[in-house]
Design a protein that fits this description.
The two termini are 26 Å apart. The longest helix is centred in the first third of the chain and has 17 residues. This protein is an alpha/beta fold. The strands form 2 sheets. A 6-stranded parallel β-sheet has the order 2-1-3-4-5-6, sandwiched between helices. Strands 9-8-7-10-11-12 form a 6-stranded parallel β-sheet, with helices on both faces.
Length: 382
């Protein structure tokens, strides 16, 4: 299985008694020696397999945020052994490893192999857990995802998975409600950031030249970006300095626009590299923004950008939508759709940057760091 042994070795090297799998197994088996005096052998530590896009530690951002960081924490705790599973090989039995739990993120399991995998899980007593962190279910959301190159087969894979799973884990209460409307029970495990990956102080932006504001995100936010045009068109700060929006990702448009600039990611597509890219340039920016249009897809999103901007050292200004409800209690600023409200919030963020970032970072460090959270472990059946 390409990349599996390196993944398993990295995740499991801290677990006593674990070893990386041989060529035919997806797991890292624990060898348990019989105890002396005829006592029964110890019960093997549960084996949790996970299916995400990517391999060899290179995964999409959602997999790092929602799955692999928690799997590493789970392995480090000694409560389970973990290994990335090749879905095709496990579904057809080529990978013969018995899994106690199989966690599948989003659409990472090919739709045409999912029924075989579910049948094998039922026959072997494997608990199947689905992990979703976006609305893949309402018609409005599916239309938006189709524009972002989610073909019908990918959406069908997610739908089939969550309806057949023994447990479903999601990231927000509004998304749990979306699933409930589909007849699917889910538990909420809020998004978090990995300790040590981000910074821990406020940045000191360049005092000369234009004042820059960061907007980062995946290429599904073109409509959200448009909300900011009247905000930044001709915007100056209290000292008369031009305020420029700088975009990383967000839209498929490849060129700068007259009202915003694009910062090229280069080769930093891998999430840890992306974070390093941002940290190396953090002094460019005076704030981070997260606009959201008012639709069901956005309302089911999490406050992850608040966490990320805060740990990058930037004051946060976001849309006053359900996704960011409550962040103003932790140093964030919220604005309605009126451009004047956005400008006022940004000027406040510039003026109160350090204390707002300090409040936000204290909250994140206390309550929103990735780990093997109890609710998540309960969903896994551990």
């Amino acid at each position: 299985m390409p990349g599996l042994r390196s993944v398993a070795a990295r995740l499991l090297r801290r677990v006593p008694g674990a070893r990386a799998a041989g060529p035919t197994g997806s797991d890292a088996a624990v060898t348990v020696a019989p105890t002396t005096g005829g006592a029964p052998a110890a019960t093997p530590t549960p084996l949790v397999g996970f299916v995400v896009h990517g391999a060899g530690g290179v995964h999409p951002a959602s997999a790092h945020v929602r799955v692999t960081g928690r799997m590493s924490a789970l392995a480090a705790s000694g409560a389970a052994r973990v290994a990335q599973v090749d879905p095709v090989r496990w579904a057809d039995g080529t990978d013969s490893a018995h899994l106690d739990v199989l966690l599948v993120q989003r659409d990472a399991f090919p739709a045409d192999r999912l029924d075989a995998a579910l049948a094998r899980a039922a026959a072997e007593g494997t608990r199947v857990v689905a992990e979703v962190d976006d609305d893949f279910f309402s018609q409005e959301a599916r239309t938006r995802l189709a524009r972002a190159e989610y073909d019908p087969e990918r959406l069908a894979s997610v739908d089939r998975l969550v309806r057949a799973a023994d447990a479903v884990v999601t990231s927000t209460e509004p998304l749990r409600a979306v699933l409930a409307a589909q007849g699917v029970d889910a538990v909420v495990v809020p998004n978090a950031v990995q300790p040590g990956m981000w910074g821990d102080t406020a940045v000191r932006p360049d005092p000369a030249g234009p004042r820059r504001v960061l907007y980062m995100g995946s290429a599904t936010h073109g409509d959200d970006l448009a909300l900011l045009r009247p905000v930044f068109d001709g915007f100056t700060d209290a000292d008369g300095r031009p305020v420029r929006l700088e975009v990383v990702g967000v839209t498929a448009d490849a060129a700068d626009q007259e009202w915003y600039d694009r910062l090229d990611l280069g080769t930093a597509a891998h999430y840890p590299d992306f974070v390093a890219f941002l940290r190396a340039r953090a002094e460019r920016w005076s704030a981070g923004v997260a606009p959201l249009t008012g639709d069901r897809f956005n309302d089911a999103k999490s406050d992850l950008k608040f966490l990320e901007y805060s740990m990058l050292g930037l004051p946060f200004v976001g849309s006053d939508r359900p996704s960011y409800a409550g962040v103003d209690e932790h140093g964030g600023l919220l604005a309605g759709d009126d451009p004047s409200a956005w400008r006022a919030a940004l000027l406040e963020a510039f003026h109160e940057s350090a204390p707002r970032v300090a409040r936000a970072q204290a909250y994140v460090r206390a309550e929103r760091l990735v780990g093997a959270e109890p609710t998540w472990r309960t969903a896994l059946g551990l």
